[in-house]
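Local shape tokens

___
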Amino acid sequence: MAGVLLLGSRRYSSWSLRGWLAVRLAGLDVTEEVIPLKGGGKTTEIHARSPNRMVPYLTHDGADVWESLAICEYCAEIAPSLWPEDRIVRAYARSISAQMHAGFRPIRQNCAMDVERVPAPLPEISEELAADVALLSRTLKGALLRSGQPTSFLFGERMTVADCMYAPIAIRIHTFELDVDPVVKTWVRTMLDHPLIREWYELAADEPAEWRLVY
């Protein structure tokens, strides 16, 4: 193996999913190590091993890479097809990927990722959350319709870094039945049916019961 990819519990760790997808799509030869999350930022084993005290953290062929978007960029250097080929489209894809990295806080705070949670709408949606969902819907729809007709993934017929960055959002849309445009709902179904996403769900289901968080 050429390196190690440090992950948090697959059931909950949205940022781990982003990095893991990019690593798998790029075909990096790494060992995957999963550390159960303890909640409340108290996972000291991760603190001791990761430069930013968080997951994912990738060591590969002499490189140390942390932060999901940085891992995605690193993987795209090895597998350039992880970004659109066209310069202008690539700039668009990079912009919405960075937007996901820094934004959509109300969704992330109110709709925690849990791949084993039974889908059901939230009992109440604040104005702030509704506005964030509307922005998300416009952002994803804009990418999907950029060519004039819906694409399977955000920038064409294959998964890119942008899809990696928004994959946990697809899970949240499904889990909390968020009100997004029908075009976006089709993308969600495509994402959830992707072999890697299905594999992530299966791996999460195989994790020890004692890793489950009470919330």
Notes: The mean pLDDT is 95. The longest strand covers residues 3-8. The longest helix spans residues 127-144.
